[in-house]
Amino acid sequence: AQDKKAVTQPEMNYQAGGSPLASEPMYQSSNPKAPQMTQAEFDKARQIYFERCAGCHGVLRKGATGKPLTPDITLGKGTDYLKIFIAYGSPAGMPNWQTSGDFDEKTVDLMARYIQQDPPQPPEWSMEDMKKSWKLIVPPEQRPTKKMNDYNIANIFSTTLRDTGEVALIDGDTKQIINIVKTGYAVHISRLSASGRYLFVIGRDAKINMIDLWMPKPDNVAEIRVGLEARSVDTSKFKGFEDKLAIAGSYWPPQYTIMKGDTLEPLKIVGTRGMTVDKQEYHPEPRVASIVASHFKPEFVVNVKETGKTLLVDYSDLKALKTTEIETARFLHDGGLDSTHRYFMVAANQSNKIAAIDLKEGKLSALIDVGKIPHPGRGANFTHPQFGPVWATSHLGDETISLIGTDPKGHPQQAWKVVETVKGQGGGSLFIKSHPKSTHLYVDTPLNPDPKLSQSVAVYDVKNLAKGFTVLPIAEWAGLTDDGAKRVVQPEYNKAGDEVWFSVWSAKNKQSALVVVDDKTLKLKAVIKDPRLITPTGHFNVNNTQHDIY
Ligand code: DHE
After folding, report:
1. Where would I find the H helices in 447-508?
2. For ligand 1, is residue 538 a contact (CB within 6 Å)?
3. Residue 17: is its pLDDT beyond 80?
4. DSSP conformational letter for 102
5. Cytochrome c domain: which residues (predicted)?
6. Does ligand 1 come within 6 angstroms of the Cβ of 429?
């Protein structure tokens, strides 16, 4: 059982991040054929389901990375069979909830009965709901007309304080905290407007906050909830549309919303329910994963997880919305642009593939087989000494790093092929990063079960990958006296490309820190500690995020 836990844990911890839907009131019809449950049992099971199971099996239990668990299937299997499956897991990736010690026998029995009931349906979220949640805190006409502070705003870092529902804005030059801004719960990502003035963050609870970096003390100017659960936000970047529009994708309801870029006023909601790419069958819950703005056309690139489709949404006329639907592969997740910004590289994580999408031509360039469960974040771009420009991803499910050629003109032989596979410290990697001014490549492993690996980072010299990696003991450098996880997560460069920042992510009641490394010497440069820095996870440099530099 111990071995099994080691194998399944990185994925399990990753996908069981907790859903805000656990506390939503839901409609429930009773299924007379299912085993009896009291209301209290049902409510408890529903909460556990949304916290631990929905990430893989879906809100409606139609299946995603995990198998479908609708009553037509589960009733036939019966309580005893389901209990064994929940208790012991499966080699296909189902965690062993009982033998790992996460569930006791009673909870296993509860969940086996629960998944034979009809799935409760969370409420939808309409334009009216959005408008009710919308707060224009400082209208555009009351905002500064020029930058009113002395910060070098291009080098500010927006750092998620996951469990407190805040972001810390940190001055990258002085390493001082500028402000702690109230946001939604567990902000997933930060993105910038084209001008670099406005910062947009989205919480797991689908709350978007828009922060004006020109204010004397940068703070919220607008807020909206675009659904009940979400992960992605971005802004229009094409010439002529700078700072005009914002877009957010939601997990529930499955839809994306286009808003005004200076106020977050919602303009248009588009549902993503529809047919899957492979079997072409209806899916009621295709969640919106990563979104990126094209620099080549007035388009947003919207990646729909369960249907395996990448949508190029032309935002130039919202009243006559044109969408190019590109067939990619199922379970699209995270991704980023190549160094020329022409190609979007997105991980279809459970298909073990990267899709390369040509944003100039509006078509799929290739589907590329990589390692097990690619997880690039936005990936890393650098020039390989032999193969030219490459984009790289690390993996959640194995220790490799796949380098993919991205230069069809200059290096046609290598384009859209894995030109080299580099061995890293281990599996459980989430993020990888490089910078045009650096010759280093950083690979984290925060979800590796071995604390030695989850608390350190591997660095490569991209000019000599064969030399292998150097390990930087980031958590040790943080000098935290508390015990606990201290996961080292997400390398992020400063604007100059000569420093790399890491979060040392501890539990809510333990001390965390940010560690800054000198990129030239690979030596410790600074440790940022503050009682307000609780559960830091992602951190985003304004300039690099604004210009898609990675
Ligand atoms: Fe993330 C990116 C979804 C777990 C931190 N994460 C993304 C993106 C998606 C996503 C769709 C791409 C957004 C984009 O670019 O537009 N993440 C999910 C999940 O569904 C998942 C697996 C489970 C969950 O319940 O949320 C999950 N993610 C995590 C974590 O456990 C992390 C480490 C901490 C947390 O907040 O829960 C985490 N995800 C991040 C970060 C990014 C991200 C820091 C942005 C990377 C970047 O460089 O852009």
Report:
1. 451-454, 474-478
2. yes
3. no
4. S
5. 40-119
6. no
The pTM of the full predicted model, rounded to 2 decimals, is 0.95
Distance CA 291, CA 276 (A): 19
Instruction: Ligand 1, residue 446: give the atom nearest the CA.
Output: 33
Measured between alpha carbons, how far is 221 from 209 in angstroms, rounded to an integer?
8
* Planar angle of CA 520, 523, 525, nearest 5 degrees: 95
Backbone angles phi, psi at 189, to 5 degrees: -140, 160
Cβ atoms within 10 Å of 435's Cβ, excluding its own: 27
Q: Are strands 499-505 and 282-283 parallel, antiparallel or unpaired?
A: unpaired
> Which of 65, 54, 55, 24 minimizes the C-alpha distance to 115?
54
3-state secondary structure of 5: helix
Atom 11 of ligand 1 has which residue's CA nearest to it?
Answer: 289
* Chain centre to alpha carbon of residue 319: 30
**pLDDT tens-digit readout, 360-378:** 999 999 999 999 999 999 9
Q: What is the pLDDT of residue 42?
A: 92
| Amino acid, single-letter form, for residue 516 | V
SS3 306: coil
Pairing outcome for strands 322-327 and 309-314: antiparallel
The ipTM value here is 0.98
| Structural tokens at position 169 | 């804005």
Structure tokens at 140: 């555009």
Q: Note the pLDDT tens digit of each residue in 218-230.
A: 999 999 999 999 9
- 65 or 282, greater pLDDT: 282
- Please indicate whether residue 548, judged by its CB atom, sits closer than 6 Å to ligand 1: no
Residues 11, 12, 16, CA angle at the centre, nearest 5°?
120
